[in-house]
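Minutes, project check-in
Item: structure for the 432-residue chain
Input as provided by the requester:
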Amino acid sequence: MRGRRSGRRTRPWVWQRVRVPTVDVDLALVGGGGAGSLVLAALARRGVRGLRVAVIDPVQRRGADRTWAFWGRPDDGLDPLLTASWSQVEVTTPERHRVLDLAPLRYAMLRSAPVYDRAARAERRLGAVRVGAPAEAVEDDGDRVTVHAGGSTLRAAWVLDSRPRPPRRAGRTNWLQHFRGWWLEADRPLFDPGRAVLMDFRTPQPDRGVSFGYVLPVNDRYALVEYTEFTPGLLTDAGYDAALAAYRDRLGLDPARLRVREVENGVIPMTDGPFDPRPSPRVVRLGTGGGATRPSTGFTFAAMHRQAGQIAAALAAGRAPVPAPAYPRRHRWLDAVALRALDRGPLAGPDFFDRLFDRNPTDRVLRFLDGTTSPAEEAALMGTTRLAPMLAATAGDAAARLRDRLLPWRRPTAGQIPPPVTGAPRHLQPDE
């Protein structure tokens, strides 16, 4: 559930490194991907002027190197950028097929190219300094932050760091959301552009974890078809291709009528390990490294977009660019319990999501997945899940938290998030 999630192609555009003299700025963006681009665009949308900005990133972001999907309302400032959006989605289990009307929300797909283009225009409007090198050191003395990058030195009042980071410590449950998607072009109308397939649980379920497919159609001949797992480990390159081919066949799509135009791969952490959004007084982390990924679902984009707007509003008002937490503390606890129940059983992922959608208003479920529900709504949602496994997971989570307090030296250290498995899809082309 991509950004829900972010998919990446294997060859990013590499930007030539540029050496600049030591400069003082008000705001330095370390990392110019999705989170940094959304901040730049929000600054331009707010009409912020007189702000000295630097962007530090070894890669010049451009093109469709990833895809985000997210819930939202129309006219949220993103409509001109969207690749597609849907007012209906399908959720399918082996037992039933459900079509959900999303009003007043909609499900939307956004490819990265227009986001990067909007950010580039904002950079030019702001007169931002661009350093085409990785940040080698970020040193915060409490008054200013010094960033060393490619032989250049910048001093900033504030740093927004969106580089990938592992959690501060390992969680009690540590899964990965990993996926591969094919952008399929058909030689005749095959897809329904009016509906997205949100979750199709008819895929073979792993021994430990959850799997599903989904379909995001751009038009009747072009769609992203994807296979996703929530499990502790990754598949092999051949394993992803086999799972995707099996899901394509289950959908009744004839490979002789299809061409794989692009392949997307990704890995997103699903962990109750804490990320550190404020590692020092004047450094703020954004994106997954700052806790913007919802642990139980993998949704990320909506939180990044919210936080970008909060940062721009704060700077426009002369305040510190520190956004609200991506999710309330109670949501992080609910995620920890849900992950524990799914990991240790006997809660089954397809049944968990099926009951949520079957026994609650659709917009409440969607807002819960996005992290914007109230405590009363969350209590109602949890009341529709299977009671015994959730109570067992709640007790187990409480016991694990107590053990960690009493025996902190037994906590495992957090590992790095593995890169996605990639491979060349030439053997998938039926006309070659």
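Outcome recorded: The longest strand covers residues 258-271.
No further action items on this chain.
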